[in-house]
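Propose amino acids for all 322 sites.
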């Protein structure tokens, strides 16, 4: 099956890197420096993230999976039969499988991801288990303008977005609002099932992003290791420290790589200098109250309907309709 390939980014002068080199250099030229979190997920980064999801401190994945399983029937009844599911940023298959297994005769699955290799694996694995399901992968950055496959024929179910994992938290609120508005346009009157991490005890958040085994630190540093592997950048991983504080005022975890000393690296013929103590921003993880997120969904043009949360109010699943 052919995938739809799209790109609205600037031309990539380093073939084979899926834009990583271009965006890495662009981000490291900035003040303050940054690396986009979408580049965490090469094969090594994806494996590390799977390890993070199994950590005792990391409550998000197991809580969301439990919510999906517990409320699958109710979710399926709200979505309705014959739906076309669009997953913005295709993730681990366990979540989409829970949804597909619960739905009545889902018609199509449209996973969107920047990695064509990953999407090929998704299609191969799902095609064997869901032979009646139309699979239409889209290789694209869902944060940029994109074109989805045509709507299903008249009489089929609606187009429904799936955005689990609290990935919406990787965007600061103005960008999150803009993304929700674009998703609503793409869904053309359908609905959106979205996972949202909740505000909670800062100690729980600190532990989740600073685990005792150091897996999250390795995940963060893998951005530099990836640059070494793919681009010959020569980062000394021991010369950078993982730092992930919780900003109480803005209600978000902010993740950084902090240079332990004054140093320089070569990247695509350019010298990048780091001061001692200089931080490179790699990720945000915004936390919401249920009420705050529902208000933002309304501003994006959605009508908030059902919301599900666990007994400890750690995580939430929201069903939004246009």
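Proposal:
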């Amino acid at each position: 099956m052919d995938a739809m390939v799209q790109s609205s980014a600037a031309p990539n002068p380093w073939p084979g890197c899926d834009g990583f080199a271009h965006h890495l250099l662009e981000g490291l030229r900035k003040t303050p420096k940054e690396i986009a979190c979408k580049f965490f997920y090469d094969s090594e980064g994806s494996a590390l993230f799977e390890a993070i999801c199994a950590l005792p401190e990391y409550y998000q994945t197991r809580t969301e999976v439990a919510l999906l399983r517990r409320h699958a029937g109710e979710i399926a009844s709200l979505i309705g039969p014959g739906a076309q599911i669009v997953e913005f940023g295709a993730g681990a298959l366990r979540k989409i499988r829970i949804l597909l297994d619960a739905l009545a005769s889902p018609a199509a699955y449209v996973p969107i991801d920047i990695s064509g290799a990953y999407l090929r694996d998704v299609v191969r694995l799902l095609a064997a288990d869901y032979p009646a399901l139309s699979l239409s992968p889209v290789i694209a950055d869902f944060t940029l303008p994109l074109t989805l496959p045509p709507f299903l024929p008249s009489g089929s179910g609606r187009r429904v977005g799936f955005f689990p994992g609290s990935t919406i938290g990787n965007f600061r609120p103005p960008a999150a609002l803009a993304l929700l508005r674009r998703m609503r346009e793409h869904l053309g009157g359908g609905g959106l099932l979205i996972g949202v991490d909740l505000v909670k005890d800062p100690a729980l958040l600190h532990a989740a992003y600073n685990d005792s085994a150091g897996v999250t630190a390795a995940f963060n540093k893998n951005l530099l290791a990836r640059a070494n592997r793919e681009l010959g950048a020569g980062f000394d991983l021991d010369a950078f420290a993982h730092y992930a504080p919780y900003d109480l005022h803005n209600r978000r975890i902010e993740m950084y790589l902090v240079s332990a000393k004054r140093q320089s690296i070569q990247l695509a013929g350019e010298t990048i200098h780091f001061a001692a103590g200089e931080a490179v921003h790699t990720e945000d993880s915004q936390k919401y109250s249920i009420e705050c997120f529902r208000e933002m969904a309304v501003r994006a043009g959605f009508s908030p309907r059902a919301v599900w949360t666990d007994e400890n109010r750690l995580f939430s699943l929201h069903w939004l309709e246009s």
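Residues 200 and 312 are 9 Å apart (CA to CA). Residues 29-57+208-286 form one domain.
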